[in-house]
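Exercise 7.
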Amino acid sequence: MLEKEIQDLKNIIDQRAIKTVFQPIISLKDGDVLGHEALSRVTCESGVKNIEILFALANQFNCLWDLEQLCRTKAFEAAFRFMIPPYSKKLFINVNPNVLHDESFQKGLTKEYLNQYNISSSNIIFEITEKNIIKDIDGFIAAVDHYKSQDYKIAIDDAGAGYSGLNLISDINPNFIKLDMKLTRDIQSDNLKAALVKGMVELSKISNISIIAEGIETEEELETLINLGVQYGQGFFIQRPDTEVKEIDQRVVNLIKDLVQKNNENMINSIFHMPIENICTYTCTTPPSTLISEAFDICRNDTDCPGLCIIENNIPVGTITKEKLALKLSGQYGFALYQKKPISHVMDKDFLFVDCKTPINTVSSSAMSRQQDKLYDFIVVKKNGEYLGTVTIRDLLKKTTEIEIAAAKHQNPLSGLPGNLIIEQKLQQCISGRRKYSVAYLDIDNFKAYNDVYGFENGDLILKLLSDIIIRNMRTDDFIGHIGGDDFVIIVNDHVEADAFHRIVTEFEREVLKHYNRDDVEKGYITTANRRNMIEKFPLITLTVVSANNKGRQFKDTFDLTETLAALKKSKKIQLKVVI
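Solution. The predicted structure, written as tokens, is:
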């Protein structure tokens, strides 16, 4: 049997009976193609069809280099048809680590060799699998460094399939890590796999290594990988390997974009609407009949206990903090006076309790509104009216701070208004929904000239002035966003035109005059250098507002909507120049 397999191997090499198929690797952010993995397939009649078994035989019978060279040459010949510059995608080539530092391999993969295929070395990624045992680790690392210096890229393939993966990653610092398909399979229902992949994603963030998930076969796997933050993916669900390089099915691209948007929305919602149950812990409880002395012993023996929640039939009826209980028992007669009485005698019946789904920021506001003597008492959390646990003020403040920091990442630091990420999501919600909406775009005219003359600090005051005026004049259910610089956006759940924002324009253009000196206001202009570095007179600041809505029109996507607004703004500014 072995002789037959050896003969099959020899025939495959002699007849060059290998073809290359390509499988795309795409971004799990927007569906764009990163590159293609070149996969080898046997084309002749043979008892050995599995390419991994074929390479194992080649390694065993000293013809590994011949098979490697055949597969690589076939891959380049096939790739030549679609990698002619300016094609910028990557070509992923599987390489056995034990031939990487072979002198024949290095001579056979020079830049001159690639030039005949019009392929740049920067577009070549060597995939090195964990499954192969590296016999000469020092020579292997030296070879990797050699290829990196020539602008080739390195990927660790099948990460998670072997036992030396972390050492291999540490030794060669690859550009990509490809997760073994066993980690991908059914990851949506396997918390351990999800935790392992999440850990790899965190590693990628601090090491600048991109993660590629192999073997994606279902929508559920794709969604889980997107939610975990994996950057790239490949698999049958995206596209099967093919001899031709084809476009990605638009349905797959749209699904990825939808899943990314959904994940971003969930992330933001989790930031702003995180329920109190997320930081709730189960702490000691006791019935109302418990003696005060016994309650004191419970608290004393549990150093982490903030106090006791007194429950009856699993319903909270009172609380007592450790400090207040100790205070009751202190003094010359305290212990003697209270020790034999039930805890109900001293418990606080007027305590703060909240439902487990109450947002943390709402709980924080309620807690900080309490009287001074109860300001630092713990909060009782209920679920379906029954006791669930407690939250200490320390944990509440810690989580509130984390939420504020996370929220700040999505807000403009100057105005405090939502920034581009949230604006993009709100616009997408408008377009994909069926409700009425109008989007107004506000742009400050001659703002740069003001900044040049009066300085950036005064310019910031102008931006803050406009944001305050917008907030004062819009309803609480209207969305206000700060795109950046002097650009703002307002989304209204109705059909309105630009003149609906006339009051904002009037108030802003009146108030902004207070930020000029008297001479400039009287002249009606300021003087400074223009973009061609020539002195020019610039009018005082005004505000341009344009709007678009879905009355009688459906926008294809956010780009279509923003392009429409940009064209309206340009047209209006041209009209203003003509009037001036």
